[in-house]
Write a structure and sequence with these properties.
The protein has 418 residues and is an alpha/beta fold. It contains eleven helices and eleven strands. The strands form two sheets. Strands 1, 2, 5, 6, 7, 8, 9, 10 and 11 form a nine-stranded mixed beta sheet that branches. It has a two-stranded antiparallel sheet with strand order 3-4. The chain is globular, with a radius of gyration of 20 Å. The relative contact order is 0.16.
Length: 418
């Protein structure tokens, strides 16, 4: 887990003018995103029979084979080294446990991981030689020593299901973007991103032609029962990516909140590998539905996924894959600018959204206002307030964990009407 410093927080960060975005030409396509189809995928992957989807186990082989079959049914082209499969040498998960073929619990001993990779060729004869990579991870945390299963529905079976559904509607509607799209389902994300790191070390498309990466992890739960939002991290490393993303926030009525990658030291993701695996670096964005109530617990099961939230996120990401694939410019990379005033403005926007919630107690609302003041001080360029790392850490923990754990909401309906 990475620990990133909160350097120069009060230094301003220049913003880019948003790129004008035309009307949504994909309306009929994204309307076909199916919560029912995604639920079928989540139910299979997050079932107890998959035993937490950890490398080197028969149940993980079942998950891999299922995903290979799904990519084939959808009509993607195989882009692994063995059909859709991209095997790599894995390091066993220290301190993690698995179910063996006889049902016994042992420490994880998986020595081979398997990414699943498919291609949607681009529709433009020239731009098809460039690639947008979109990923989710299908591995999980295995089992507890007593055999209880980390089903990993939210983290990240739901993201895996969304990726497959995005691919399906694009293929079935002959709606490929101009650039080619690589769909990567990674193994080993829960083990220091081993699967994504392995694929990026020897990708099955020319490395120099990968222009941008996206990671969906985790998806499928609301921040609060009456606050549905999608958090975007990492776009500050590419002016063009940031401008394009910010210009599309009203698509499908998606509530977007942008947060500087470097202020979230609690997590890491496949997304981070894009910053470390290329020279020169490639930009990437990390997409999250921050409903962290049961994150990394044995209670993260299929019954708690809110398919209203997941369908909304998948619809939006279908749109973004298309926008990025059709963008006629170049996505440049820059070292992350200091969070600066933009950080304050973005987190204040998230806090304001939280403050619209009707489930907050008086104590929680008071805490939210206090944390909002912290970030407002950062947003005010002429502020002389001293904002400490501890204040920022407390505010982010409050937003991502404390509120959602206090108000996870009722078990959602199985899926919305379609």
């Amino acid at each position: 887990m990475k620990r990133l410093l909160f350097a120069a927080l009060l230094i301003g960060c220049p913003t880019e003018e948003p790129t004008p975005v035309p009307g949504d030409e994909l309306a009929e396509v994204v309307d076909q995103i199916s919560a029912v189809t995604m639920k079928d995928d989540v139910d299979f992957l997050a079932d107890d029979d998959r035993a937490g989807r950890i490398a080197g186990t028969p149940s993980m082989d079942e998950a891999r084979d299922y995903l290979v079959g799904r990519m084939g049914e959808i009509g993607l082209q195989p882009l692994g080294t063995e059909g859709f499969v991209y095997p790599y040498t894995a390091t066993p998960r220290a301190g993690r446990y698995q179910l063996n073929a006889d049902g016994g619990v042992t420490e994880n001993d998986g020595l081979v991981g398997h990414d699943v990779v498919g291609l949607l060729p681009g529709s433009d004869p020239v731009l098809a030689a460039e690639y947008v990579v979109i990923s989710a991870h299908y591995d999980g945390l295995g089992v507890e020593p007593d055999g209880r299963v980390f089903n990993g529905a939210y983290d990240d079976a739901a993201g895996t299901a969304a990726l497959l559904e995005i691919a399906r509607v694009l293929v079935e509607n002959d709606a490929a973007p101009a650039r080619s799209t690589v769909f990567v389902l990674t193994d080993g994300e829960e083990a220091s991103h081993q699967g994504m790191a392995a694929w990026l070390e020897a990708p099955t498309v020319p490395a120099e032609d990968i222009v941008v990466g996206l990671s969906m992890d985790p998806l499928g739960r609301p921040m609060l029962p009456d606050v549905w939002t999608t958090v975007i991290l990492g776009t500050e490393r590419s002016p063009e990516l940031d401008a394009l993303w910010r210009a599309t926030g009203d698509v499908h009525e998606m509530e977007l909140v942008f947060i500087h990658r470097d202020i979230i030291p609690l997590f890491s993701s496949d997304h981070d590998e894009f910053y470390e695996s290329f020279s020169p670096e490639r930009p990437s964005a990390w997409v999250v539905n921050p409903g962290m109530a049961w994150y990394h617990t044995v209670d993260d099961d299929a019954e708690t996924i809110d398919y209203r939230v997941l369908r909304k996120a998948a619809r939006y990401m279908t749109h973004m894959v298309h926008r990025l694939g059709n963008y006629e410019g170049t996505f440049t990379y820059r070292d992350a600018p200091a969070p600066g005033t933009q950080l304050g403005e973005d987190v204040v926007a998230l806090m304001d959204l939280v403050l619209t919630s009707e489930v907050l107690t008086g104590e929680e609302r008071s805490a939210a206002l206090t944390h909002r003041d912290t970030f407002q001080a950062i947003a005010d360029a002429d502020s002389t307030s001293v904002v400490t790392d501890a204040q920022i850490f407390d505010a982010i923990t409050f937003l991502l964990f404390d509120l959602n754990q206090a108000h996870p909401g009722p078990v959602p309906p199985p899926f919305p009407e379609e």
